[in-house]
């Protein structure tokens, strides 16, 4: 018996943070659940491994890392005299563990093509289902996650400018991509956290660490998350999936693993998730909960020899890493240019007029996705006064938080544009 | 044009080694080939990620790392006055790049179940095919790889007690598992390499580094490669694949991706590989060259709901990480004990007598696989005399190199053995 | 003989950079010279070790590190097609090795009290003396150091916004203080260096690394170099030395080691250095070349029991780390406040009116000392166009380079200011 | 007031261990005492910085590091159910903080020449004096330090095979010398500590970490602590100090700082320490408590121009790093060889027969000093049974713990031995 309890508090080796101590039975049991185990099979950074060969780390590891940081943050805040009960500590830890549980494989890509619902909404659905299974033990975690609990700073630890999600992923992504410059002083930032007026704030001594955090985050956006080759690969994957769906909708045969078939052949909406309708003997949520990177990977491999020339060519490009050339611009591309490229594609790549548009992708990228929390970072000085980070720092940080928008245009590398 | 050449010499971020500079166009082109790209989708350590969540690194990264170390070793040896021509340097680098190209996903497991041929044999076949494609540019690499080239020390850099393969994987596996103690002083060991009488040897000053290397390797065997939970998971995967094969051979339906189906439904031998017979429109080697982790992953997911109670239960156990209990022993387990467990299984897990044996696994593990090179490590002293490492060190290193054999016995965790 | 040559190219272990390979006989011989060996006994960060216990690293290590980075920079620039002859490479390396050779112990402090000459001027004198000894082998190094060589970018590698001095010390000081956040991506910045129009510039891909470098530098200023406790300790040391000098000038006995006595009892000017006048049998420069941290350290220890109550009390404060309280302000302190403190000192610390002013220190600190190069950082884009870093980056970097001035006020901690 | 308490629990940056939290007011106050502050000015590794330029770290840092590890060890043992009261925790922490407080500068050297008493004895005397000052608060710490407390495992945490002293210094010395291979898995070893039958033991899972610890220690002996150039430098320093003492005893003038003069001009024994006799107005212990590296450093500098040709030449050799050639042998050197060298010295270095012996040094080094604890490492298996590490490990560890003795012979490098 005792043996068993020890196991539930077991220690996990993490290359980034060292030993992670789970500490709680509830956390252990949540990790054991198939919903959470699925995260082992979803890469944190989607297709980025095509540019950064080391970036194979999973959402599973990241969630454990965020749990570890949360434990530290709780301990720091308690030492500074802020009350956090054991129940609240468990709840906020469970909330951070599960904050990403609803992610699809290649999340941004799939949310653009196959699933008409955000991963945040699915995360919440999964938490609620787990809460039933765990007989209400997640009540408080869900209230904190949805910002419906009186202590708002607990929610901010899960989702805010300085949440444990972000602190872990910036460091972790920096570690696995090998972009060492992205490293942030997580340990120090956590030591500088404080609570003022129920808001998560930063002690004044931590200003330079926060500046460095903001700069590192910016560096990671442009050097990793929005790396142009990664953007090109992702837009290619979107194109592939759209084409596969077109074919499926036209009633033609498209190979798919069972889970992928559900989302490829049906148009699934938020309502389908909610009303628990079943397809092939399982609810939509249950199907979703089995989707992982390998479903997409297998499909791409098989589609390379699909009779449809567009699907096969696009799949081959992605599988063999013959990615499309990508141009970036701060202004939208001229329709004239796009027309010209389209014409070149028709003469060089495919003579089918309808097919041509499949070989040219345009769109825009912004750092917004990584920057969703627009609230300010508040700084607490020694005298107990509060300042906005922008006032507290004597460099202009506005630029670091503003949304930058770039337009991209992709087409086959071998294309000669006349 | 110049732009293109620069790309071919591009720099890759590696979390373990920093910047890796490919330096050669041939190496770049080999990496681009689908045979090599496949390694991106095969985890270096198979199922170990179930125990070490960070161990998702791929054989692709490892091969690039070994290339990087090879460049350093070549440069050290040249500085010490040993002739290595540019052609030889390119060839030995190509040989290390491709040394693992024939690995199957979950290599040891598949070599025990689906494929009756070693990955070394397949690596050689693939190299030969690439050599044709590259019009003989790999001639010398193949001769070095197969130890048919006059300068034997070049072969030893690819495959020997201190080869670049081993130096890279020990460090890399230590890095990604988070078992920091496995770290070896790669940079220093390489600086201590020398050649004596056409043999790769170590300068005397490097003795303590070599001792530490041997101890780290040993630590990695028992703490990572032969970790009991990993052994349990792998034996479960073997069991699953065997059962799937039985069902397929009995003519019943078993879901499989196209590539996996080829190896599940046919008994493929070395001859089939060699005679280039085709199945479903592709050679056996070509089918093999598309197999990766996701084929196995998808099969396991789908088999969880297969009508066969054995296949479904075993697949569920593996997917949901309900791994079997494992006992280790230095002597074989008593047949009486196994009989008793078998009886318990029949009364508690399945009442089908025939099925019971599927839920009990026995076998042996040795450190041999990781220790295949039995040749000695030679030490060169300042006066130019050569010693065997065992003489040179004043601790007894015999034990570090001897084969240790352990017997294992696995059965379901929930089983009460009476 | 050969043995000897090998020694001259020997490899040095460096905790920050790994193995440092000296590569050149000239560099080796310069390091062997007592002028350079003296740097082993001068802490890079003066009194900072009173705040950061690990900051005992010496100017010796730093100079070797800068040599190592210079070798890398040369190799990168040559790969990018810029001509650097072997002689130029040796000269620029010698220049960086010797760039700090003229530093006094606790450099800024001594330049404010005992020595009326800058360390840069002394460095040049020492180089010239070494040049005679080495029979002109340093001619080119000196021309590069003094910016009198046609290839200006070589000078900028020694002294400029992105010189090897700065790249090494930022990283090294970050390493030894334990302020991990100060770490900069040296390897990457060096890879991004380029030359345009004879100016050292940065490739556009390196913009984010440069931003991070600027932020890290800023963080190091305020968190380390201008740490308030360090400023307090340094101003105390200035006060101690001034008092000792007063006593010596008054003809009273003040203990000093032979080298310190020279500078304590005489007013030495640049002219004294230049005209090679001798004191006690050695030139001023030669006396200077024997001064190190231990001369100051011994004096402080002995002065703790000096009959002068001011000297003894101040020395005790510094030795036992009873540092003075320090207030910082962005505006000068009110004369009224200073008067009040002075009065409190007279009633609480010493009743001697004249002595009181020794226990109150005011002054200003700026980040200027660390920021002397006002020239711009230039960025080279892919099309070969040059931009100023401030245009190239879309955050406002002006603030990062502007001089920040703070006023400080120190007085004994135990003082109650009424 | 509160402010003050917070200060006493302040956080210190440590490059090796990150943030060190002092946690206790007593520890803070002990650190503030001049006895402890002195350790800032004593290098942990004496003259090793002549070989490893980064090895300037002080005994001060090491003692803080050992405190940090002690806190972790206490917390691990308490979690495993072993009672350690708050008083015991404070006492064992104070004991490790002060365990090295009695070290002289260049400890082994001075114990061989100037001070006829071991540093352990002085540490105890200093602790007793501090205990009086702190009104008995160190009673329990002293009992633990001297192994006179009922819970023996507490003593073993301070001084034993796996004490916190050793765990910290192995890692720290590895860090600062840059001999990265010496790194041990401190965090893991501490997690594996346990108590059995009042003895500090290791959990069975930690066997491989212990093996690695033993090998790393061995590597550090031979690669750092007993590095031949370091041995040569230390024997030169012994020779210098002996000569200075001879001259002083002959009544001639030898420059010395006040503190050094006490020990150079008098023969101080343990009794002098104990009977509190005063010299020049201070007790012997108080004089000792002011000695640090700078006293030796200054003397060496000044002695370079001493009229005695032996003292000046030896001092010059050490200051300018013209170290003597050193030969090592596992058997004592032949008297004939020594005679021959002596003769060569008389003809080449000095024609004074009596002086010659000052230029030849012989002696022996052993790993004993670093290996004083001969008790076994005990291993606790899962079933609660205890084994000796040598049985538990299947490699032969005897060799790792045995005393290795090497003989050395040093003489001037320029000597031609005929």
Task: Give short descriptive properties of this protein.
22 helices, 3-stranded antiparallel sheet, homotetramer, globular, 4-stranded mixed sheet, disordered N terminus, alpha+beta, 418 residues
Concise account of the structure shown:
The structure is a homotetramer of 418-residue chains. Helices cover 52% and strands 12% of the residues of chain A.
Number of helices of chain A: 22
Could you give the count of β-strands of chain A? Answer: 13
Low-pLDDT regions of chain A: 1-6
Estimate what percentage of residues of chain A fall within beta strands: 5-15%
The end-to-end span of chain A amounts to 75 Å
What gyration radius of chain A follows from the Cα positions, in whole Å? 23 Å
Give the rounded overall mean pLDDT of chain A: 91
Widest β-sheet, arrangement of strands of chain A: 4-5-11-12
Biggest β-sheet of chain A, characterized? 4 strands, mixed
3D shape of chain A: globular
How would you describe the oligomerization state of the chains in this entry? homotetramer
Helix and strand content put the structural class of chain A at alpha+beta
**Helix percent band of chain A:** 40-55%
Largest interface by residue count? Answer: A-B, 45 and 45 residues
């Amino acid at each position: 018996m005792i043996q068993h309890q020890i196991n539930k508090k077991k220690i996990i080796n993490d290359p980034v943070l060292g030993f992670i101590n789970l500490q709680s039975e509830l956390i252990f049991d949540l990790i054991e659940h198939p919903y959470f185990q699925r995260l082992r099979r979803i890469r944190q950074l989607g297709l980025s491994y095509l540019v950064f060969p080391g970036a194979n780390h999973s959402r599973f590891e990241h969630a454990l890392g965020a749990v570890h940081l949360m434990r530290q943050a709780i301990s720091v805040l308690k030492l500074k005299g802020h009350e956090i009960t054991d129940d609240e500590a468990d709840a906020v830890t469970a909330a951070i563990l599960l904050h990403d549980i609803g992610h699809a494989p290649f999340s941004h890509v799939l949310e653009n093509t196959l699933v008409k619902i955000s991963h945040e909404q699915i995360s919440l659905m999964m938490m609620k289902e787990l809460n039933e299974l765990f007989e209400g033990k997640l009540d408080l975690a869900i209230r904190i996650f949805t910002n419906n609990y009186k202590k708002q700073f607990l929610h901010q630890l899960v989702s805010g400018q300085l949440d444990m999600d972000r602190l872990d992923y910036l460091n972790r992504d920096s570690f696995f991509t090998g972009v060492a410059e992205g490293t942030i002083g997580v340990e120090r930032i956590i030591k500088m956290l404080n609570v003022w007026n129920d808001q998560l704030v930063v002690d004044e001594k931590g200003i330079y660490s926060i500046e460095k955090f903001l700069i590192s985050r910016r560096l990671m956006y442009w050097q990793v998350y929005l790396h142009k080759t990664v953007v090109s690969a992702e837009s290619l994957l979107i194109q592939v999936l759209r084409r596969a769906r077109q074919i499926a909708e036209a009633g033609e045969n498209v190979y798919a693993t069972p889970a992928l078939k559900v989302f490829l052949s049906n148009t699934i909406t938020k309502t389908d998730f909610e009303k628990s309708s079943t397809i092939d003997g399982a609810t939509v949520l249950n199907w979703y909960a089995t989707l992982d990177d390998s479903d997409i990977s297998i499909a791409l491999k098989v589609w390379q020899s699909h009779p449809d020339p567009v699907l096969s060519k696009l799949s081959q490009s992605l599988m063999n890493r013959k990615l499309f050339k990508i141009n970036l611009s701060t202004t939208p591309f001229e329709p004239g240019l796009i027309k010209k490229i389209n014409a070149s594609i028709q003469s060089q790549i495919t003579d089918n007029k309808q097919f041509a548009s499949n070989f040219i992708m345009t769109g825009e990228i912004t750092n917004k996705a990584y920057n969703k929390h627009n609230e300010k970072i508040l700084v607490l000085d020694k005298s107990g006064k509060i300042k906005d980070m922008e006032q507290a720092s004597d460099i202009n940080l506005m630029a670091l938080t503003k949304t930058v928008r770039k337009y991209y245009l992709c087409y086959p590398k071998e294309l000669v544009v006349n």
